[in-house]
Amino acid sequence: MSIQQTKHSRRTTSNLALKNVGSVLVVLGLLIVAFWGSHFVHVGDSHNTLDDKQDTAEHAVSNVVTLSPEKLASAGIHLSKVATAEIRGMKTVSGTVGYDSTRYVIIEAPVDSVVEQLLVKPGQLVEQGDALAVLSGSDVALARSEINKCEADVRVARVDLDWNVETQKNLAQLLETLKQSPTIEDVVNQFEGKVLGEHRDHLLRTYTQYVLAHSIAERTKPLREQGVVSGKTAETRLSDQEAAAAEFLAACEQSEFDGRLALTRAQAEAEAAEQALAVSKEKLRLLLGPLAEASKSQSAGRFEIRAPFAGRIEASLTSPASRLTRGDAIMSLADTTMLWVSALIHQHDWDALVVSPTETVSVSFPALPDEQFEAKVSFVGPEVSPTTLAVSLVAELQNDDGRFRPGMFAWVDLPVDKPHQALVVPTSAVQRHESDAFVFVPDGPGRFRRVDVAIGLETPQQVEIKSGLTDGQEVVDQGAFFLKSELLLEHEE
Question: What CA–CA distance (Å, rounded) separates 480 from 440?
Answer without folding.
Answer: 7
